[in-house]
Amino acid sequence: MSNLQKKVLITGATRGIGKSMAETLFSQNYKIIGTATSDEGVEILNSKGFLGIKLDLNNADSLNHISEKLKEEHKDISILINNAGITKDNIVLRMSDDEWGDVINIHLNGMFKLCKTVLKGMIKSRWGRVINITSASASLGNRGQSNYAAAKAGVEAFSKSLSKEVGPRGITVNCVAPGFIETDMTSYIDEKAKEELIKQIPLGRFGKPEEISQIIEFLVSDQSSYITGQTIHVNGGLYM
Predict the structure, then answer these.
(1) What single DSSP character describes residue 56?
(2) Average pLDDT in the 154-169 region?
(3) 239 is catalytic
(4) What's the CA gap between 186 and 16, in Å, rounded?
(5) How confident is the model at residue 190 (pLDDT cuts 50, 70, 90)?
(6) CA 164, 167, 172 angle in degrees (round to 5)?
(7) What CATH number was assigned to the domain covering residues 3-233?
(8) CA–CA separation, 190 vs 208, rounded Å?
(9) Where are the chain's structural domains?
(10) Alpha-carbon gap, residue 76 to 198, rounded angstroms
(11) Residue 163 to residues 112, 117, 123, 128, Cα–Cα distance (Å)
(12) What pLDDT band is residue 4 in, cutting at 50, 70 and 90?
């Protein structure tokens, strides 16, 4: 199957790592469907030559609507990249039910629903790639991120289990776990805190979105056909 025949669904494709992945794969002739949470984001995706879809992973109605749309109009999705995510940091004793529930819902429940939606088409064609973006926090833990670390660890465990279910049908399921990457999600970190974090990274810097995209490009290719159930860490040595 050539890249021109492969349709890729990327959640959270307007910014940061998602944007970089969409642009990288588009440049390699993949057909890109990208999701955004706003109409403005959808317009941005469409302007790049992608197909933009509005999706709120924390809204059951939105998720159900998109699932039905994908089943009807995009049964031929070959590659799913669950990238969209949020953080709502707080220490456990101060964390609200919403701060816990929203993070768990978006990362775990949203991923589950989309995987279930697109897998039938992959099984029918006996080829597919599912890549779930996790985080070094899943392995390291991080103060104030019990919700985020728990969600991402759950994503990794889910991916291992799913890989055993769909592997016989030629579908691989892997995770990519970035460390600190220069994106909107890390832009809130003040310079002093950033300097302290960099001291913990053997390569002495934050990563760049394209350094994640290069791994993704390999994992969606035929060259990665014997890799499944794995978590690939890209963190400059922060976690080994």
Answers:
(1) -
(2) 98
(3) no
(4) 10
(5) confident
(6) 105
(7) 3.40.50.720
(8) 18
(9) 3-233
(10) 42
(11) 13, 16, 12, 11
(12) low
**How many residues comprise the chain?**
240
Residue 176 CB neighbours (<10 A): 23
Nearest to 11 by CA among 34, 38, 30, 42: 34
Query: Which residues neighbour 106 within 8 Å (Cβ) at sequence distance 6 or greater?
Result: 57, 58, 84, 85, 86, 151
Q: What is the 3-state secondary structure (H, E, C) of 57-83?
A: CCCHHHHHHHHHHHHHHCCCEEEEEEC
Q: Write down the catalytic residue from 30, 148, 188, 239.
A: 148
pLDDT tens, residue by residue, 121-161: 999 999 999 999 999 999 999 999 999 999 999 999 999 99
Helix (H) or strand (E) holding 8: strand 7-10
* SS3 assignment, position 94: helix
95-113 residue pLDDT tens: 999 999 999 999 999 999 9
CB contact burial 81-110 (16+ within 10 A = b; e otherwise): bbbbbbbbeeeeeebeeebbebbbbbbbbb
In angstroms, the CA 229 to CA 222 distance is: 16
